[in-house]
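Box S1 | Example of a co-folding query
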Amino acid sequence: MTAQLIDGNALSRQLRADVTARVTALKAKGITPGLAVVLVGDNPASQVYVRNKVKACEDTGMHSVLERWPATLSETELLARVDALNADTTIHGILVQLPLPAHIDAQKVIEAISPAKDVDGFHIASAGALMTGMPGFWPCTPYGCMKMLESIGYELKGKHAVVIGRSNIVGKPMALMLLQQNATVTICHSGTKDLKAMTLQADVIVAAVGKRNVLTADMVKPGAVVLDVGMNRNDEGKLCGDVDFDGVKEVAGWITPVPGGVGPMTITMLMVNTLESAERLAG
Ligand code: GUN
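Box S1 (continued) | Returned holo structure for guanine
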C-alpha cells in the first residue's frame, strides 16, 4: 500500500470532542442543542442510520427526539409534524430521513422545514446559500469530505477535482464546495463518455455513485486523493464503497476506507450543523 489512509473514525472522534465541549458551553448559557429525527416506515437501513444519529446526540450531550411513524402516515400528517417541530423551541435541527414512502413528495416535505433548522442542508434555501457563498447549512456528507481534505492540509487552489455522481445530496454540493476552495471541478455522471480520461487528470477524486468498482487503479493518477462516498455490499455481503480499494490504494496518495471513512463523518457534520444552529440562536 502506498496511499495514506484518511481515517474517518479518528477525525470524527476529534471533531465530536470539540462539539461536546461547545455543547457544554452552550448548556451553561441555558441552551441545549436539540435534533429531531423523523422516520417514516421501516426501511432497515434507515433504522440503522437514525439510531446512529440519535446515539451521536447522546454522546455529544445534545437533546434528541426520534419520531417513528408508520409507512401509512399521510403527507398532510407529516407536513403537520414538520410545522410543529419548526415551532418547537427545544429543537434546533430537523432531519426527515430519506427515502420517504412513495405516496409522500419528499421535496415538498424538505421545503416545509424551516431553513434555520435545515441541518441536512437539503432545502432549496440551503442549496442556494451554498451556491452563492452565503451562510447556510451544508449537506453533511460533502461537508465531511471537505473536513477530511482539511485534515490532511490539502490545498485545493488550482487543483483539478473530479466528482463522480451528480446527486443533490452529494455530487452537486460537493462540486460547489470544491469550487469555493478554488479547485477546477469536473462533474462526471452516467452520461459521461470517457470517465477514465477525466479521472486520470484528477488531483482529487470523489466517488459518489452508489455502485461498486466505479473507480479502479488504472483510472487514478499516482498520488491523487481519493474520497469514497459509496456504501455498497460486495458478493460476500461485506460493506464496500464505490472504489476498488485494494487496487486504488497502490496508486493513490491518500484514500478513505469503507467502512470507517466518509460514513462516520456524515453524522459528525450533522452534529456540527445542529450545534451551530443552536449557537446562532444564542447569538
Ligand atoms: N438518507 C440517506 N442519507 C441521508 C441523509 O444524510 N439525510 C437524510 N435525511 N436522509 C438520508
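The chain has ten helices and eleven strands. The pocket of guanine is lined by residues 95-98, 120, 140, 266 (CB under 6 Å).
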